[in-house]
Amino acid sequence: DHPAFRPLEITIGPDGAIYVLDWFNPIIGHYQASFRHPSRDKTHGRVWRITAKQRPLVKPPDLTTNSVRLHDLFTYLRHPEGWVRKQAKRRLSEMKTNAVIPALRQWLSETTAAAEDLEHLRYEALGVFESHDVVEPSLLSKLLSARDPYARAYATCVVRRWSDRLPDALALLANNVRDEHPRVRMEAVTALSHIPSPQSIVIAM
User: Fold this and answer.
1) Is the pLDDT assigned to residue 183 strictly greater than 90?
2) Which runs of E-coded beta strand occur in the chain?
3) Residue 147 to residues 80, 122, 181: CA-CA distances in angstroms?
């Protein structure tokens, strides 16, 4: 309840704890006090770590070493912790395209999983293709018809970004603009607004 407590940002850390960035400044406004006011603290702040009682923290894998193999990074795309999946995609984005993309295609073709897990894995894999700016129509098509509406919405965003290199971008969006989920329909209309064609207006309407 201290008046200087100013939480600005909250995120989940690699250990599973909740981290809160606390500006801890007695002046919160811009013009109510001079920028040269001595109470403006431009140096200090606090970071709070919130953990669950009597529960151990998560031990994330070390993805910084050069010994991490491509196959390991692909496997981490299905890790239950979002932070690990994000860092695996980050490492993959920094590697050479001609090494990552063929290996990822082969790994996806050989991977078996339950339907929901496979959809999520395709969702993560599509992000890797995006980071290397490699258009992958077959994977995109599968996600556009996924059972998870948020996977379909994400795939619809990708259609917008790849529309100049997809021969049937408008046809793909014509399906999703009628989707049962409002988020998917919204992303489809947004994507259509980025494609300079009179047909985009017709489909959106």
Assistant:
1) yes
2) 7-12, 18-22, 46-50
3) 20, 12, 11
The CA distance from 129 to 97, in Å, is 9
Least confident of 62-66, 75-79, 83-87, 90-94: 62-66
Q: What are phi and psi of 51, to 5 degrees?
A: -125, 160
Give the tokens for residue 167.
């021969």
Residue 81, pLDDT > 80, answer: yes
Phi and psi (nearest 5°) for 49? -115, 120
Q: What is the pTM of this model?
A: 0.82
Provide the β-strand partners of residue 10.
20
Q: Which residues make Cβ contacts (< 8 Å) with residue 179, sequence separation at least 6?
A: 149, 152, 185, 188
pLDDT in tens, 15-57: 999 999 998 888 877 778 888 888 888 888 899 999 999 999 9
Q: Kindly state the helix (H) or strand (E) to which residue 113 belongs, with its residue range.
A: none
The answer to whether 71 touches 29, Cβ cutoff 8 Å, is no
Q: Which of 31, 22, 21 is nearest to 3 (CA)?
A: 22
Q: Which residues pair with 18 in a beta bridge?
A: 12, 50
Query: Is the backbone of residue 8 left (phi > 0), alpha (psi -120 to 50) or beta?
Result: alpha
Single-letter amino acid, residue 151: A
